[in-house]
Design brief:
Distance between the termini: 30 Å
Oligomer: single chain
Number of strands: 3
Strand order of the largest sheet: 1-2-3
Number of domains: 1
Number of helices: 4
Radius of gyration: 17 Å
Order of helices and strands: HHHHEEE
Largest sheet: 3 strands, antiparallel
Structural class: alpha+beta
Strand content: 5-15%
Length: about 100
């Protein structure tokens, strides 16, 4: 028997086959929604910051989520959701807690 941990996609497929729903609070699901749905991201950002949704939608641009490694010992780091809008850089860090 393999001790390999199942991927989120495998767990989702199993739940779908059983007719169950995978919780949107799951880290993988939430990041998928945040990265693939600009309207959701704009609404969430507006709710948190008060930045108008039309400004977000009109001036949105992607940012590189990988941080520059400053020394040989430091591991590669990346931000979960990082994007820019006119006058702002928005960084969402999502935790599975």
């Amino acid at each position: 028997m393999s001790s390999k941990k199942k991927t989120a996609e495998e767990r989702i497929k199993e739940l779908q086959e059983k007719g169950e729903v995978f919780p949107a609070s799951n880290d993988y699901i939430y990041k998928s929604i945040m990265t693939k749905c600009l309207f959701f991201k704009a609404d969430m950002t507006y709710q948190i910051t008060g930045i108008p949704k039309d400004l977000i939608l009109k001036t949105y641009y992607e940012k590189n989520t990988e941080f520059v490694v400053s020394n040989a010992i430091e591991r590669g780091k990346r931000s979960d959701i990082l994007f820019g809008i006119e006058g702002y850089i928005i960084n969402y860090e999502l935790n599975n807690k």
